[in-house]
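INFO batch 0412 | record 1 of 1 | parsing
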Amino acid sequence: MTTTRMLQKETASESSAVIESILNQLNAVILGKERQIRLCVACLLARGHLLIEDIPGVGKTTLAHALARTLGLSYQRIQFTSDLLPADIVGVSIYEREGAKFRFHPGPVFSQLVLADEINRATPKTQSALLEAMEENQVTADGQTHPLPSPFFVVATQNPTYQVGTFPLPESQLDRFLMRIELGYPSARVEKELLTGLDRRDILAGLEPGIDNDTLMTLQQQIAKVHASDALVEYLQQIVSFTRESAAFTRGLSPRAAIVLLRSAQAWALMAGHRGVLPEDIQAVTTAVIAHRLQPRDESAPQTATEIGQFVLAGVPIP
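INFO prediction complete | emitting tokens
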């Protein structure tokens, strides 16, 4: 019996065991970042796109490549620079003399996992080339619509906005990312292992797919079936309402943010082997899902992602 057929009959705990094997493989590449990796996998299982914000050199690109190889996805890396054009991402139509017509040549976005490396080094015009792809899984060029592969994920890396040569991502672009995470510096123990162990590129080259596309899509379908009680949904709504009513933010979370927060909590619950979504499942993903969608009103409000998440969760009682 194939893994896909087995998953269709498995319980939540058995599905979480399959996911755990994926996490173990990723943790062998990116050391000491178990929680961040779990959030990454939850994001992709929830059919979302991922934004990784941090300084260069902490493993953002390596993580994206490891995700593609472990999940068995076709992979393309786009290096965003100030002179990158939208056509460099989506593709271009070229006139063919033999057929006396234009033929569309797909760009690197036509892959299952696309790494938009240093996305905020490109101009807003180029950044916007990804909006339709991320929202509708398609690209429109010269009046024709071209579907993207399924599944389709964008994993973008972003340099801190205080660094030279960066363009802030507009709110509409940020909202397309289901989660935003940071990797941070490794601990002293992990850094020593990085210095004395195998090169990460050599480990990446030896990675084998942990699942196939059918298994991945089966897991994604199971996400929507994870039960969320009325009390749990009301708790989520209270979190959303708190952000809208709080004076700390210029505006609150949108209905789309509420939907992806629930979907992320369902993914986290499935990964944990829970039969239904628990309050702690929502709390586990809240910071990654909402912090990049909220703009502090002034300097007296919470500023960092961690501060924003803690502020919101502390303001809503647990049911």
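INFO post-check: Strands lie at 50-53, 75-79, 91-96, 101-106, 113-117, 138-141, 144-147, 153-158, 179-181.
INFO record closed
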